[in-house]
Amino acid sequence: MELQLTSYAAAPNAALQAGFDFPVSLTEKYRPRSLDQFVGLDKVKKIAANLIAAPRSSAWLFLGPSGTGKTSMGLAIAEAMPAELHLIPSQECNLANIDRVRMMCQYVPRNLDDGRPCRWHLVLADEIDQLTPAAQISLLSKLDATNFFPQTIFIGTCNATDRLEPRFLSRFHVVEFSSYGIAGQVAELLASVWQQNVAADVPAPNFARMVKDSANNVRAALMALEVEIMAA
Which of 88, 141, 191, 209 is 20–30 Å from 217 (CA)? Predict the structure, then answer.
């Protein structure tokens, strides 16, 4: 399988201001922006493509280990639909912020900055398993079919569900993200990044070992590679 690597830096105006260069980390520079740029996740990508093609008011839980692309997948879905994005970062997924976003979703979605019209809202809540029991109960009622966020797709991410109440969890379509079987593709990604950033005569590290040490965590592997590039 040939891996297509696309490099993404910050927007031109943000990357270069007043003659100064503001580099970004490798994890941000090579973060996938579209479905075809994700490593592995074939089943997840099919589900996402169908949701983009035929969006409907619904709640989804992206479940899996860190570094498997859960948040990036939510961002890619919002971009592709397109939808007005409401991001609730990790540690800010609380009752107050959920209520605030719920109010924002009552309004017609705003068009994107590039002028593309939006018909949908997309709420992306990171580490939703950190919600307190009271917040879970409140959100549970908002995810009920009779009181759902209007014209909204709600996506929560988490590493595990042991802190989520069963009746809360039952409101979500659970999509599992797995790093199983992607070691070869991640190693190929690291090799491509190395070639783009280091002179050809510099000996390359053991990419396969780097992936193994990172437990197939793409983000962790890229961070380890960044250290090696800086030392090259």
Answer: 88
Q: How many independent structural domains does the chain possess?
A: 2
Strands of the 83-88 sheet, one edge to the other = 83-88, 120-125, 152-158, 58-63, 173-176
CA atoms of 24 and 66, how far apart (whole Å)? 20
**Is 120 inside a domain boundary?**
yes
> What pLDDT does residue 184 have?
94
Residue 174: strand pairing partners: 61
Single residue among 176, 198, 219 that ends a domain in this structure? 176
Mean pLDDT of the chain: 87
Looking at the fold, whether 128 and 60 belong to one and the same domain comes out as yes
Q: What angle do CA 203, 205, 208 make, to 5 degrees?
A: 140
State pLDDT tens for residues 61-89: 999 998 899 999 999 999 999 999 999 98
pLDDT at 188: 95
CATH of the domain at 91: 3.40.50.300
Could you tell me if 86 and 122 are in contact, meaning their C-beta atoms sit under 8 angstroms apart? yes
The DSSP code sequence of 44-76 is HHHHHHHHHHS--SEEEEEE--TTSSHHHHHHH
Query: Taking phi first (over 0 means left), then psi (-120 to 50 degrees means alpha), and beta for anything else, what does residue 37 get?
Result: alpha
Q: Tell me which amino acid residue 198 is.
A: V
| Nearest-angstrom CA–CA distance, 3 and 11 | 24
Whether residues 112 and 205 share a domain: the answer is no
